[in-house]
Amino acid sequence: MPTSIRITLLLVVLFFIAIQARDTVVRAAEEPSSSCTVWPSQPPADSPFPKSTDITGVCFTGRHNHFEFGDTWYPSWASNGNLYSPWTDGSVNGVDSLSFSTAGLRLTLSKLPPGLKATTGYATIVGDDPMHIKIIDPGAHPDDPAPYQGRYPCGSLVYNGVWYYGTYLLLDSDGDPATGLNWDILGPFVGYRYSTDYGKTWHESPHTPTNPLFGEPDKPGEPVKMGAPHFVDFGKNMQHSPDGKAYLVGHGALASDPKPRPANLSWITGDQIYMARVKPGIRNMNDKSKYEFFGGNNASGRPIWTHDFSRIKPLVDWNNNAGSVTMTYDAPLKKYRCASPTGATPSHASTLIFSSRTGLPAPGSSPSICTTSASKAIS
User: Fold this and answer.
1) Domains of the chain by residue range
2) Structural class in CATH, domain 6-378
3) Structure confidence at residue 16 (pLDDT)
4) CB 75 within 8 Å of CB 376
5) Which of 317, 333, 330, 327 minimizes the C-alpha distance to 363?
6) Which of 72, 133, 220, 308 has the smallest CB count inside 10 Å?
7) How many CA atoms lie within 13 A of 160 on its CB side?
């Protein structure tokens, strides 16, 4: 294993697949149905992970529910049975949202009006059958990204009737996200606004783009560690959390990168995966002192948790192969599933999927904008 790759979790690679598709898991000792298409798995030669012997592939049956409602959906399963999710860069039932301001952008392929202000969308998903769900009560909330250009949804959690909605920041080096590298500079996680009435009204975060929750980076354009964080999906009202805490995973990079690349740390690309945890509550979520950060493993292999953000360590350190990450606890399988884009470029990425039988920190889910795995759909 190359010395530049440092693994601090017991993670198992399932397979590498191209992004953006709907999946059916093929488990060991099962043969794929002749009516489904198996996603090819072509792990890079330098993959530091062994292949899974439990889950060996993904196939596509063609059965799906089609929506054209923008992107960046991260549903959270509330105690009332509904899913509540961010969304953006599209339209839902006549409500529009775009998560960037046109000020300072060239937008050569767009006809958007000058002076457009950034917003982040939100909506409710009702129904228990994924083939017959409805999306209702959409809205759009103003979110100023300055001094950055984009401010997008990320970690979203509904717990005990309170909806915590996080946002993160982006820069585009050539001033046109529709061309070139596409939001190639990842900015910090700002913090959470929250709602006690499922999105009817919102309370603003005390944090701003110039005063982000975790205090990174020192100046815009420098790398971050807890970039675009997402909550580990523990099921309905976090029922499967091992300790009542909410866990977050984010992707990042270091300034001292030995092999930087174009868009080295962007909305989808990165070098490391990091984790934090917090007891969810209105007083805690925007208070950095309430968070614990994964600080590596001790001599016995047990995780070290620290309140000192400067001591945070990556769960996975694989240069140019650890991007935007989400995670889900698969209750029927009693496993954590995790996925992240690997080897991502502005035009292509494969999906690195992990699984783990052990407890945290070794959870699982799917890659950011592409294939988020909602626990309600697998319950």
Assistant:
1) 6-378
2) mainly beta
3) 35
4) yes
5) 327
6) 308
7) 7
What is the mean pLDDT, run by run of 10 residues, along the chain of 379 residues?
Answer: 34 35 43 72 76 75 83 96 96 94 70 79 94 94 95 97 98 84 94 98 98 95 97 96 96 93 92 96 98 95 95 92 90 84 66 66 33 68
Residues forming a β-bridge with 337: 328, 355
pTM above 0.90, yes or no: no
- What residue type is assigned to position 209 of the chain? P
Q: Rounded to the nearest 5°, which phi and psi values hold at 67? A: -130, 150
Q: What tokens were used for 258? A: 């030995």
Residues with Cβ < 8 Å from 168, sequence gap 6 or more? 151, 152, 154, 186, 187, 188, 189, 190, 227, 228, 229
Please name which of 191, 193, 187 lies closest in space to residue 216, comparing C-alpha atoms: 187
Say what the pLDDT of residue 17 is.
Answer: 34
CA–CA gap between residue 375 and residue 61 (Å, rounded)? 20
Output the DSSP codes for 204-271: --S-BTTB-TT---SSTTS--SSEEEEE-B-SGGGTT-SSS-EEEEEEE--TT-SS--TTSBSSS--S
Sheet with 24-27: strands ordered across: 24-27, 55-60, 37-38
For 133, the 3-state DSSP assignment is: coil
Distance CA 256, CA 158 (A): 37
pLDDT at 42: 75
**Looking at residue 201, what is its pLDDT?**
98
* Joined tokens for residue 273: 């995966």
Neighbouring C-beta atoms of residue 232, cutoff 10 Å: 28
Three-state DSSP state, 66: coil
pLDDT of residue 231: 97
Measuring CA to CA, which residue among 24, 115, 5, 13 is closest to residue 354? 13
Write out the two tokens for 274: 């990091």
